[in-house]
Records
---
Amino acid sequence: MEKIVERLRRARAVQLVGHIHPDGDCIGSLLGLHHMLGQWGVAHAMAAGGGGAGGYDLLPGYELIREEPDPAFAPDLVVFVDTASLERGPESWRASAPIINIDHHGGNTRFGEINWIKDSAAATGEMIYQLARHGAVTITPALAEALLVALSTDTGSFRFSNTGALQHRLAAELIEAGAMPTRVAKIGFESQPIESLRLTGRVLSGLRLTAGGRLAWSEARAADYAEMGGPERAPENLVGALRSVRGVAVAILFHELPERRMRVNFRSDGSFDVRALAERWGGGGHTGAAGLTLEPVDYEAKREEILRTVTELLDRG
């Protein structure tokens, strides 16, 4: 942390980068660093490809996040947050300055000059809070709110197995600093467009149980997305609703995307390592939550391959 704070404070211009299809942790972490660098008077810009279906536009500074870094902005330092590999970053941009890599995914490829990877952290936002405290940053209400959004969304509102006493203590400190739990809940969980709710209904109505009830899966097909307004309408933790069925050890949500692309989300009850599962097809994540994107692919053939593999693994016990 000392090295990161030193590099940030003496930088002339910093490009902050998050992963494609940014979630609450990614956006909250970007905005946390945005508020930190603002206090230090360091010029900076933010980018994270694609939007989400939540209410993150209610966060101060969100409007400054571009889908791609501005080519006219010339940073002397680049900071990636919550991004496990360069391939998860902006599709048509590569950093031309030294990289600091801050992430909580154990499968991170360590692509930075400085790599702070802490897979014991519940969220990258938790690490940004520790960095802010280490750098003697004033935890303003806007900074606290961004980081509480990051922490609450990546813990599933403090329901996931990555939640412990530390996360509750951090949340309490952020609330004491000015974050309002009701507003954070609205931003992270209660600001879905109506198309997202309709898509949720479509996915839940297609829920299937296999492997003796231990595997739950569903899908969002291309026709569903065409009707509902596109893949960006998918709620952030839709696969978690599938995992909530009693007796389910693994849940899988398949997404059929344009241009023969396919995204797959995995969730586990903790008894099954879905990160190792995702890594079989080039993905990654955490033990209890992982995913992957494939292209080009025969959607139905790959879906059946993945289902067959998971079923076989579950049947082995």
---
Amino acid sequence: MGKPQKIFFPENVKFLRKRKKLSQESLAQQLDITRVKLNAIESGKTKNPALEDMVKFSEFFRISIDSLLKAELSRLLELQLRDLEAGNDVYMMGTKFRVLPITLDKEGRQNCEYVPVKAKMGYSAGYKDPEYIASLPKYNIPSLPGHGTYRTFQAAGDSMFPIPDKAEVTGEYIENWLEIKSDTPCVVVLNGSNEFVFKLITSNKKDKSFLLKSLNPAYEPYTVAADEVLEIWKFKKLHLDEIPDPLTDEPEWKRMFSELKQEIRSLKK
């Protein structure tokens, strides 16, 4: 099991009240609650606020209850806060907690950091820590467009066969998850599981979830909630140390390999 979800409701209420330059007395009057109750909520003394009170805060600040509970709003950029107030959900926008840390080379160009399999546990804990990202091996890939942010992950297992175990997959960081098309090959960094996976993903905005599929038909597709996803990196390049084993004559493997080649051609275009 992953770590329990931290609840940010008390500090979010206080942050949003101050952002609107309201006193506790003024906000309490507008929400038709007492100042004592509001003070208890903001200080965290009220461990389980009433649902009707959460609805009042949500409607007043124009931010979903889900975001009031789970997103640390004080760490978001002003543009991200405006997205929330406009009704865009941070858990499907991919902008939920921080600005992506990056590293630069001597010429000021973004590096492509390398995350090997052995770094799985460290990455899921340090993915938003600039010092940790700076400690990763880094290099540049001249053939990739200069406007993107890239990271290389070492795949593991045979769920994406014919892509072999230990192959290195370079992905481009996706900030807005709503732009992801169905069955897009991506590296998905998951919360609480100490892992990243390389899958074909399809977003489900209604259920705030993603369907993850393997190329290998021996593995069943599965669904993860959007708030369990830390990062998504869209496939850009595949790096191999050796030529993959030849496929068998089975029609299923031929079909899979053909689909993979078509997917790579479409990405190159």
---
Amino acid sequence: MTLEGCAAALAGLPGMGPSRLRALLQDRPPDRCWADVLAGEDGEDLQRAASRVDVGAVAAAHAAAGVGIHLLDGSNYPTVLAEDPAAPAVLFSMGDIEAVRRPLVGIVGTRRSTHGGRETARQFGRDLAAAGVGVVSGLALGIDGAAHCGSLAARPDGRPPVAVVGCGLDVVYPKRHAQLWRAIADEGVILSEWPCGTRPEPWRFPARNRIIAALADVLVVVESHAVGGSMHTVEAADARGRTILAVPGPVRSPASAGTNRLLYEGNGPARDVDDVLAALGLARPMPAVRDRRAAPGGVEGAVLEVVGWEPTSLEQILVRTGLSPAAVALALSRLEHDSWVRGDGAWWERVGMGD
């Protein structure tokens, strides 16, 4: 039995949480701990469960899935995480574990995000990765996924992405992110403290969020409702003395209620990637990835200038530009065709950088 196989088998026992596993392995190597568990020295519940487990089969299953097993005191355990007082006793990885190195910025936010919020997360992820900063997030729908997509867009020259998930690395969650999951594993690394086969139960995600906070030198919250997973990550980051930045949002948008409260409480704003780099104490070492096309000029440029990332009424566009309805309608049609804006005739919003 290998140390890694024993550690993975222990992590997969019923009722085994991060704190209990860490306590079990605090003073014993995994193979000794496994022998003690089988002997009943750590409780009958663990003994009964362990008696039905084949450690060799557990190790083989992880190897077949391409999942690495890292012990807290092992040489291949990420140093940036090992320093944390609540670091996982056993860490599982898919991809290149060397991607976990400083500087690292966590980008988090709500699953129920706006289009503008996702575009902001994507741009932050792309520009930070292009500037040599690793982007850490949770691979969830909404802001997390957008930040990962942005980080991947900066490859191959930009820093690889780092994802932290709340399930086994052979259990893709959410299903809609299957392609993104594979891309991050190919280009960067996905981390979990749960062994293969672990389902994504809701209680695992707050535990996952502490790992994101522990890895991040700076945590950026793009959009967050007043309560939710993002705020759990903020609390974990604050407890670790991390710098927390929030992207300002519309005061009437529920998706910005949490971020605006963070700003009210005295946390710094993240207006663009330069604010984040300044918080890291870094000068931008290279220009961010540029849009493939220059912004439009003339009438189209004037119209684009007044269309916001939140829905803007046609009446507001007419008033702000002073242009005729016919000129505005033609400009909006061209901007929509070129993927700069989208709308339904009465309301319009900016949706991208034309790429």
---
Amino acid sequence: MELLHSLRFLGNEAVHELITPEENDINVAFNIIEHLIQSIYIMPKDLKKTKFKIHLDEYQKFENFIIESIKTSPSFDFSYSYSIKKLIGARGKISNENQSKFETILKEKISKDELDWIEITENTEVENINPSETFYRIKKVP
């Protein structure tokens, strides 16, 4: 954040006080802008083309990750019941604490009919499961 403030000060002085920045300051400013564009727009797209694990540390990121996984999986089975771990898959990485928190929020949103693309189901496909584990069926592509 400090870098962006420094960039703003440099620009404000150049525009409002007509102070010409030094060449080195301009070069650093361009580097800051280039890295900002890289990290916001380019790297996230490049990351999708890798097998890097995605850290799911916020609820909305978690929900969006599940939606994106459904949309991009050519073999997604809409008749199957999935646990949260299966919905997240191998690319998603989530702490046990966050999984519990996010699943509680997900269940709440489902019960309030805020999500029309997913429902809680009975699991009939898997034997020897944890009885406290919740399963979900995806009703349609979100």
